[in-house]
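Lab manual, section 2.4: Encoding a predicted structure.

Procedure: take the sequence of the chain (108 residues), apply the prediction step described in section 2.3, and record the output as structure tokens. A sample record is shown.
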Amino acid sequence: MSQRMVVSEDHLYEVLAFLFSSAHLLVNEPHLYGTFRLIDGASRLIGFALEGGQLSDEQFLRQLKEDVDEKKFLLMTDEETYFQLLADATRDMAREMKSRAAATEGES
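Recorded output:
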């Protein structure tokens, strides 16, 4: 596993501020907004990591960000497709994590 920093300190604080303010705002917002805020935060974090140019492989995260950014606003107009985005992103992330773990084990 890599030990390099892929997000600048400024971007780290921006994401943290977004997450904490989102948590605070969710107290009074409809429950589905929480899912939107989480995937929006994930997309922002991916964007900052891509911008940093330190990732060993950008392809998976770049595609995931594109998918999320393309479909996240469907929450307002097409909940079924939005829910499928959440399921697909979760599945894809789990597969990627499994693949990365297997690759790390293979290096040992």
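Check your result against the sample. The chain has one domain: 9-107.
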